[in-house]
Design goal:
This protein is α/β, with parallel strands linked by helices and 343 residues long. It folds into two domains: 2-206, HUPs (Rossmann fold, 3-Layer(aba) Sandwich), CATH 3.40.50.620; 229-342, 3-Layer(aba) Sandwich (Rossmann fold). It has helices at residues 44-53, 68-75, 96-110, 121-134, 203-206, 240-253, 261-266, 297-300, 320-323, 332-342, and strands spanning 10-12, 28-32, 57-64, 82-87, 114-118, 139-142, 144-147, 150-155, 160-165, 171-175, 193-197, 229-233, 256-259, 287-291, 308-313, 326-329. The strands form three sheets. It has an eight-stranded mixed β-sheet with strand order 1-11-4-3-2-5-10-6, with helices on both faces. Helix 3 crosses helix 4 (121-134) and helix 6 runs parallel beside helix 10 (332-342). The longest helix is centred in the N-terminal third of the chain and has 15 residues, at 96-110. The protein is elongated. Bound molecules: flavin-adenine dinucleotide. Flavin-adenine dinucleotide binds at residues 234-236, 260-263, 275-280, 292-294, 296, 298-299, 302, 312-315, 318, 331-333. Residues 29-210 form the Electron transfer flavoprotein alpha/beta-subunit N-terminal domain. GO terms for molecular function: electron transfer activity; flavin adenine dinucleotide binding. FAD binds at residues 235, 260-261, 275-279, 292-299, 313. It is found in: Mitochondrion matrix.
């Protein structure tokens, strides 16, 4: 097993007597830090809230390269027991293969009762492999924490909620960021301990290699996952040319642009990271405007937590009107230009 190749060494970097911070009884959570080597991901602040809901001690695990500013941000968050830091060029873009042996080593050292991550592309990548190696079934996409072992998660594309109690340890969770408030409090006392962890795995033992990452251009628009306003286009908007009306409306409102899977799959209109829904992004903006979107359950699964849903569709029977707070039965290609004139 890969972890056998990995010698890990922990060093205490703050003064004072050694003491193990992991609880022998009760809850102690390792929170996987989602970041870009410069800053914490905006959605990570929801994971902090979730980890605090579990009670007990919270430690953060940062794997990256030249990520001192991320560690500083972690240290500014209140009530964090320790920040475990693994820094190596191979961790600049962490993969499940590079992260798992480190997390297993940290788990061996500190015996956390819970391991928690966002249900983001980061968490969805790493948690399944970690669960397999630790021989624990992760609980994915948690929307409510009722107790340390008692969770609620959606299934059937969000059409039903499952309540479950977990009896195995450690409890491994991913949480849905839109279901938890973003943690805002900063630390005044700064009592957090930093533990450094060496990454000693021989490159050839890792089994995969990061090659490149292509981040699609957002044209200066806000991030779809966190934007307070989202304008989404569906097949009713048609071609690339007509989709520009959706983008113009978004730009007028300072909104992010999203799309249905039908639009993404059509190709040449918008990149697939704009897909909202069961197999795309789950969003919960203050305002969602769906233009030419039918409201298929798989799409609605991604928008139903929006505060206000507005739908523009020429078919009065379109299912989107069942979930919309405001609906406009109209040809989008006429209604959107008119709306733009009035805004
Ligand atoms: C396993 C699985 C996972 C899926 N995951 C997702 C997902 O994550 N996200 C997702 O979106 N879909 C997903 N889908 C696909 C989903 O089932 C629908 O096919 C898709 O959401 C439909 O997209 P649409 O609303 O753009 O297109 P359509 O269903 O074709 O609807 C187009 C709508 O536009 C309206 N319209 C047409 N012309 C105009 C006009 N001029 N003005 C105004 N309105 C107009 C029509 O009345 C219609 O309601 C998934 C499907 C499966 C099977």
């Amino acid at each position: 097993m890969l972890s056998s190749f990995l010698a890990t060494r922990f060093q205490r970097t703050t003064g004072g007597l050694w003491r193990s911070l992991s609880s022998t009884a009760g809850v102690s959570t390792m929170l996987l830090v989602d970041h870009d080597n410069k800053h914490l991901s905006p959605t990570f602040f929801s994971a902090i809230t979730a980890s605090k809901k579990l009670g007990g001690e919270v430690s953060m695990f940062v794997a990256g390269h030249k990520c001192d500013s991320v560690v500083e941000e972690c240290l500014s968050i209140d009530g964090i027991s320790k920040v475990i830091v693994a820094s190596d060029v191979l961790l600049e873009h962490p993969t499940a293969e590079t992260m798992t042996p480190l997390l297993v080593a940290a788990q061996k050292q500190f015996s956390f009762s819970h391991i928690l991550s966002n249900h983001s592309s980061f968490g969805k990548n790493i948690i399944p492999r970690l669960g397999a190696v630790l021989d624990v079934q992760p609980v994915a996409d948690v929307v409510e924490i009722r107790a340390e072992n008692h969770f609620v998660r959606p299934f059937y594309a969000g059409n039903a909620l499952m309540e479950l109690k977990v009896s195995e340890k450690p409890v491994i969770l991913t949480i849905r960021p839109t279901a938890f408030e973003k943690h805002a409090k900063l630390d005044e006392k700064k009592g957090t301990v930093v533990e450094k962890m060496d990454f000693d795995a021989p490159k050839e033992a890792i089994g995969s290699e990061f090659v490149s990452m292509k981040v699609p251009e957002k044209g200066g628009r806000p991030d779809l996952s966190t934007a307070p306003i989202v304008v989404a286009g569906g097949r009713g908007v048609g071609s690339r040319e007509k989709f520009e009306w959706v983008e113009k409306l978004a730009d007028k409102l300072g909104a992010a642009v999203g799309a249905t899977r039908a639009v993404v799959d059509a190709g040449g209109i918008i990149s697939n990271d704009a897909q909202i829904g069961q197999t795309g992004k789950i969003i919960a903006p203050e305002l969602y405007i769906g233009v030419g979107v039918s409201g298929a359950i798989q799409h609605v699964a991604g928008i139903k937590d929006s505060k206000v849903i507005v739908a523009i569709n020429k078919d009065p029977e379109a299912p989107i009107f069942q979930v919309a707070d405001f609906g406009l039965v109209a040809d989008a290609l006429k209604a959107v230009p008119e709306l733009l004139e009035k805004l």
